[in-house]
Amino acid sequence: xxxxxxxxxxxxxxxxxxxxxxxxxxxxxxxxxxxxxxxxxxxxxxxxxxxxxxxxxxxxxxxxxxxxxxxxxxxxxxxxxxxxxxxxxxxxxxxxxxxxxxxxxxxxxxxxxxxxxxxxxxxxxxxxxxxxxxxxxxxxxxxxxxxxxxxxxxxxxxxxxxxxxxxxxxxxxxxxxxxxxxxxxxxxxxxxxxxxxxxxxxxxxxxxxxxxxxxxxxxxxxxxxxxxxxxxxxxxxxxxxxxxxxxxxxxxxxxxxxxxxxxxxxxxxxxxxxxxxxxxxxxxxxxxxxxxxxxxxxxxxxxxxxxxxxxxxxxxxxxxxxxxxxxxxxxxxxxxxxxxxxxxxxxxxxxxxxxxxxxxxxxxxxxxxxxxxxxxxxxxxxxxxxxxxxxxxxx
Length: 395
Fold this sequence. Notes:
The protein is mainly β.
């Protein structure tokens, strides 16, 4: 009864808050960077060599990215990008972007208890199975080899129940390495340690795993963001970047020797940032649309490396090419939009005259200006507080 009432309150909260795109960043297997849901637009920013002086390409046909819990994942074996909770009207849908065909499809889900507004998930590298935590239940959803939606809904099934740590008051932070799920920020745990779920044996390790710092401090028991560095040889991930919400540092966990390296914290301390890692770059997309990257050598980490701002067309960032225009060519429903750099400024505008319309309910023409005003900030605050409160009440 209580859970049903709280679910209704959550839905009410979602509809009272103005539609606010929650952007995310993600790579494809060629390490092209995608930024989705930025000022109503989605972009292929290319490989790292393109970020400073190159052009970005507009991606069309995607979801509105107005969910409160949007999460993006790369299926490395299949070069598919999966997006959870990108449409608040259909929060359980998982959207699939195929970088090869540049097309979006929508996978229907049988959610069961896997509430898309609350779930925190990882995508297992070898099995292509999602695992997501809601309260004390770990759910799984098998995406097999999908590069486009199947004709049938996929179930979120109960995979296991958390038994080795308390989820009371837990705001989950999950990451993947070596086909294990690492749980950060567990109440009552020790600094520099994580609890672990062993995917292939469906087994919660009874004791937390400690990590020994090679430099700096142990990572704190704190909420934050975590993302895994991919292997250039397409093997399982072995290193995880954990960024606490206060942005004080980046901690990279190497799960082979169980050590950590402390790196410089982001320039912008923004707990609503999204992060993605390739094989050699950690990228931050702030909630105001600024982009930064941190070079990282998995074989020889350098704790003195600095974050680099880069002004990608279509973003209001501090980088050198942050004022840009988008001109559209082609016809039909999938025009090509090329972004050309125009120099330096504090904001960016996008102009699109593309014929046809997108099926994503995004703005399709006119001028879009990237900005974060008081209403957006208030919306983020209400969304965060509402989600955290409901998690606490349901736990």
